[in-house]
């Protein structure tokens, strides 16, 4: 059964929970699929809010549902402190039509943005645990400008052929802990970029996909600093890369205090790779090396 959870009803439930001064909980009940259009969950909230996903939240299948909206986001949480997502249910991005339109699948298609399934922006003291996130339109879970994040017991999956479907993406965030999770997608299982620090990743199963990556860094001559990253305990299988640091020519900054340990790999094409000539572009990147 699919139930249409109207945007207004969803927003009203969020606003009510956010306005209470006592700890509050929004429950997505088990046994139902809820069709949810792009929605914005904004803070700050007066209380600690838990979104208890027991059933399944499903995105619109047709990309036309984003007409006139921000094509980069589906479920967008921002400016919230002490938020918890849990429950053992599923978030399904229904990404097949998005993937078919990608210029990486068909080079005659224009390169356009696609939504991240779940985005957390400027959230603090955040917990995301015991959930399945599947078939993301592009990235599955993104933490941007977040502080103190704990993530565990996640299952994140998309087919190996799905383009740009990073499992967990960390950008400009600090104090992020990811553990005891399985990530199987068409791109990086975990990617860490742009001025992130104090990242701890433990007990991860990764593959298929592109492995665990720091970067890409320095695109369009930008500056990036990534520091204090620990990956301790991972099993990677059937991935293009194992553990990787990738930078664009022309950029500046550094990646420091990076530790990869207790990593086991099976059928991995590039087990350890540091790529300072990274180029993810339709046209070859010009050589910027000076002699």
Textual characterization of the structure:
The protein has 291 residues and is mainly beta. The chain contains 2 helices and 22 strands. The chain has helices at residues 7-19, 96-100, and strands at 2-4, 24-28, 33-35, 39-42, 49-53, 56-58, 73-78, 84-86, 90-92, 116-121, 124-134, 141-144, 147-157, 168-171, 174-184, 190-193, 197-206, 212-217, 223-237, 241-247, 252-266, 270-275. The strands form 2 sheets. Strands 1, 2, 3, 5, 6, 8, 9, 11, 13, 15, 17, 19 and 21 form a 13-stranded parallel sheet that branches. The radius of gyration is 19 Å and the shape is globular. The termini are far apart. Keywords: Cell wall, Cell wall biogenesis/degradation, Glycosidase, Hydrolase, Secreted. It is found in: Secreted, Cell wall. GO terms for molecular function: polygalacturonase activity.
Sequence stretches where pLDDT stays below 50 over 5 or more residues: none
User: Roughly how many Å is the radius of gyration?
Assistant: 19 Å
**Average pLDDT taken over every residue:** 93
The SSE string, one letter per element, is EHEEEEEEEEHEEEEEEEEEEEEE
CATH class of the largest domain equals Mainly Beta
Q: Structural class, from helix and strand content?
A: mainly beta
CATH architecture of the largest domain: 3 Solenoid
Give the total of domains: 2
- Enumerate how many helices there are, as a single number: 2
Query: Can you count the beta strands?
Result: 22
Helix content: under 10%
- Main sheet specs: 13 strands, parallel
Shape: globular
The name of the CATH topology of the largest domain is: Pectate Lyase C-like
Distance between the termini: 65 Å
Beta-strand portion reads over 45%
What is the H level of CATH, i.e. the homologous superfamily of the largest domain?
Single-stranded right-handed beta-helix, Pectin lyase-like
